[in-house]
Design goal:
Layout (H helix, E strand, L loop, with lengths): L37 H22 L6 H7 L3 H32 L4 H16 L2 H9 L7 E3 L5 E3 H4 L2 H27 L2 H9 L4 H31 L11 H12 L2 H30 L11 H18 L1
Antiparallel strand pairs: 1-2
Helix pairs in contact: 2-11, 3-4, 3-7, 3-9, 3-10, 4-7, 5-7, 7-9, 8-9, 9-11, 10-11
């Protein structure tokens, strides 16, 4: 016999209310009232007002001829300057990556001499401004009037240290110091057991680095390297100091002759934004490629999101 004081099981569902005619009465709907965030609306209005004032100040500036910006965006001189900016950035980045890998290996070496030399190099080039380094290379003839490499090459330093060479050395050698630290972090991220296992199999230290350690370290090295290249595109404007005719110098030359100084600065900004935006897209997909082994579910790319939305829209239209 069941005791009347027995309790109902914990997972038992409450019985629905029954009306007079025997029908079930549905539960009362919950009326959720969203929290009002007045601060968000006030801050949004303030920000939009400030942006509108800034845009209006530039648009109504009497001394700025906005038509000149459109006239000179695709000027041959500007395009040539943008091409030189891209060229010096790519070459300096290649030099920085190659030297950075060498310096990182030297820094991690058990040889105290090579480790100390790499540390001093990184300390000097990271501790002095790029602008100063460019001027040092450009005026190197004051210290070494002649470049004498014996029977290989001999010439005056003034003829050797052209604006292009000074810009390449100044940017490339400075970038090598930063790439050395990035590469060192990538090499140290690889478990030391990988190296020990390779040595146990009879592989030399150089072969272990080339075949085992560096390929695994690329997952850590590649993303910041892409960021460094985008930064290099902007830093290349400093070679204006060594009279290399890159984008900023080309636009400044046109501005000084046409008296459209501010307009040509806007033209330079447009091209810098275009180049950095394009390579930012490349960096995004490059990071996704090297993150495949570390993330189970990668976020959708913008193109994948568009494709999913279009497929959902087509299914809705088909169902209607």
């Amino acid at each position: 016999m069941t005791d009347k004081f027995d309790k109902e099981p914990a997972d038992a569902k409450p019985s629905a209310a029954v009306s007079k005619d025997g029908g079930a009465i549905p539960p009362e709907a919950i009326k959720a009232i969203p929290v009002r965030h007045y601060g968000r609306w006030v801050s949004a209005v303030v920000v939009l007002a400030l942006v509108a004032l800034l845009v209006n100040a530039f648009a109504t500036a009497e001394k700025i001829q906005w038509s000149a910006v459109g006239d000179y965006v695709f000027d041959p001189t500007v395009l040539a300057g943008a091409g030189r900016t891209l060229l010096i950035s790519v070459l300096a980045m290649i030099m920085g990556v190659v030297l950075g890998v060498i310096l990182a290996v030297m820094r991690l070496s058990k040889n105290p001499v090579t480790s100390w030399v790499a540390w001093v190099y990184i300390w000097f080039f990271r501790g002095t401004p790029v602008y100063v380094q460019l001027l040092l290379w450009f005026n190197l003839a004051l210290i070494f009037p002649m470049l004498d490499l014996g029977p290989i090459y001999k010439d005056e330093m003034v003829d050797v240290m052209t604006p292009f060479m000074a810009a390449l050395l100044g940017l490339g050698l400075n970038e090598a110091a930063y790439m050395a630290e990035i590469c060192r972090a990538g090499l140290m991220a690889v478990d030391e057991g990988q190296t020990e296992a390779s040595h146990a199999l009879g592989m030399s230290h150089a072969k272990t680095l080339r075949r085992i350690v560096i390929p695994q370290a690329m997952r850590v090295i590649v993303p910041p390297t892409g960021n460094e290249f985008i930064n290099m595109l902007k830093t290349s404007s400093l070679v204006y100091a060594v009279t290399y005719n890159e984008l900023l110098r080309a636009t400044s030359t046109i501005g000084s002759t046409s008296y459209a100084v501010m307009e040509m600065l806007f033209v330079a900004c447009i091209w810098y934004l275009v180049m950095t935006s394009v390579f930012s897209v490349f960096q995004y997909y490059l990071e996704r490629r090297y993150a495949r082994g570390s993330l189970r579910n990668l976020p959708q790319t913008p193109w994948q999101k568009i494709k999913v939305n279009m497929m959902a829209f087509s299914r809705e239209r088909g169902s209607v």
